[in-house]
Task: structure prediction
Amino acid sequence: MPSLTKLLSPRSIAVVGASERPDAIGTRVLANLKRIGFPGPVYPVNPRYERLGELDCYPSLSALPEAVDAAFIAVPAAAGPDLVDEAGRAGIGAAVVNANGYADGGDAGIALQRRLEAEAAHHKIALCGPNNIGFVNVHDRVALWSPRDMRALEPGSIAVISQSGSIALILGEDERDLGLAYMITAGNEANTTVADYLEHVIADDRVDIVLIFLETIRDPQRFALAADEAVQRGKRIVVLKLGASAQGRQLVQAHTGSLAGEDRLYDAWFRTHGVIRVRDLDEMLETATLLRSYPTPRPAGTTALVTLSGGEAALIADLSSELGLALPPIAPATLAAMRPAFPDHSSIANPVDAWGLGFNGDRFRIILDALLADSAIDVVGFSLDAPGRGGADVGYGRVMAEACVAARRAGADKRMLFLNNTSGSGVNPDIRAILERAGIPYLSGMRPALAAVRHLLAPTQEPVLPPAVSADIAWIAAGSEPERFAELRSAGLPMTEAAVAADADEAVAIAARLGGAVVLKGIAQHLPHKSDLGLVALDLVDADAIRMAWTRLRRVLDAHSAPAADNGSSAAGSDAGEIVVQPMAPDGVELILGIRNEPGFGSFIVVGPGGVLVEIGNQASIRLGPVGRDTARAMLAETAAARLLGGVRGRGPWDLEAAIDAIVAFSALGHALRNTVAAMEINPLIVGRRGAVGVDILVEPH
Result:
């Protein structure tokens, strides 16, 4: 990939397609370059003119007096590839092609884009687009930007990268006055992807926060490397990613497919790479506003929120619970310190209804000082009804803001913030002006503000080096069930003993060797849902019962047999199915452990309540593997699994540590199989009072 320096920070520019028509794309680009104050030479290119305004106009790129750094090619799509070829022969290192009708335009457009990509690759040209509106580099005063009305932009530390031009325009309005460094629209990403732009802006010391609007990620490995580099540099990435693609692979064999939809995989993948995912533009802007004031991640303590209304305190509590923002009870010593501001009979909770005995500055400072003195509290937020047009709580808000500014100047190191309960007319300018003196952020809208606080405090997943796996991967991918069980055991997973019974007498012999009650299962690769077809016989002890069960299962398998297929499997009788004998598992909690391997993204581990609860609960926690013990414990805590393992209605508690061991080992195996297996599932893993045992495995090869 060629360097993006000539593209995003060119010293000289040509604009192909400029004309005297004010609404022409090329003319708009010329106007925007002048408006932003581009300091270098600009060369219009159009054979119909000798001059355009104050500038000499040239008939072609090859006729330019110098090899410019970048060209904006504002012509219909059909002419694009030839002009990129001409640019390369003229020594131009970068180009913006904004026309549509390429990969967005059917088969003919796809072929045209391939030509465009080939020419850019041949000449090592960094190409922005096609099918986009260009970009703006605010600090270096570059605007290869086609919109008609470009507002004056104040340089700042926010970079915007968008696969949608209209979204870039919205964010480019910078209504929260964040200060922009870049606005980049990626378009069809012919040879320069979002990952390339991210890599470039992360390396720019003038950028602290990157806002990205995504429909898809074309180069996930490079994106992940850039995101990891951002974490190392202390920079934050906020992504608004559209939902699951209709083209997402549907897994037909494993429950893992429904539990781990494509959208949830992105959540886990972003979390691993330190990327904050938001759900709408308001949440994105409020998160960026908060991060701009508190850019450096640090271990988070607890959060306390203060309101001027009991009703709003209850609403904040509801929304915080929904968003996963913890608001723990306030410590007794802190409650005692706040008590003088409240009636004796009142109870004080978190959120704190600061109205208490009525509002005045002295009572508010009692509450503020108590919260700031509590070493366990990290974030203190203050909610207001303070519209931009005035009224409501504005008078109170000024007093609160002045008190917080004074506390900050006196050395208070809490992460303080204000939030408007509604976003209607924006934040109040008077309160905002006070808060800006101490760099205290002022957020707009209760839900997006609370979501922003949740993102500020979100923990990162601990990095885990992929451990060595001793199992024979080929047997796990293509062996029979007993062979798979054996290999899983060698990889550290507690799978049950199992053996194939070729006839009823062998089933009896295997049961005698195993001892105790046994289970018979009819297994065929094309019949993943054994219980639905009656292919499981439980708790068998008597030899006659075992023979009868074997005969019945064989009959069911024969009735559902599939045509033979040359699939390279070594499993005996793989087309007609086989009958497996294994010990009856002990009592315990059933979990599902799933693996889903996505090319380019990695191996995902899925954990949740298993057995029949998979069907009715639809609960799962997902991470990018491999994971360590702390993450495995957190995954269990995110679903009902942790509560079940702790004991419910006199059953339990069960061996939590054994469940954690199994999750860690399965995630390591999934990582080792990431290029071999598409999906793999243990359901159920039965966690007993001591230890755990997996009794069923499904494998879907790539």
In short: Residues 106-123 form the longest helix (18 residues). The CA atoms of residues 262 and 518 lie 38 Å apart.
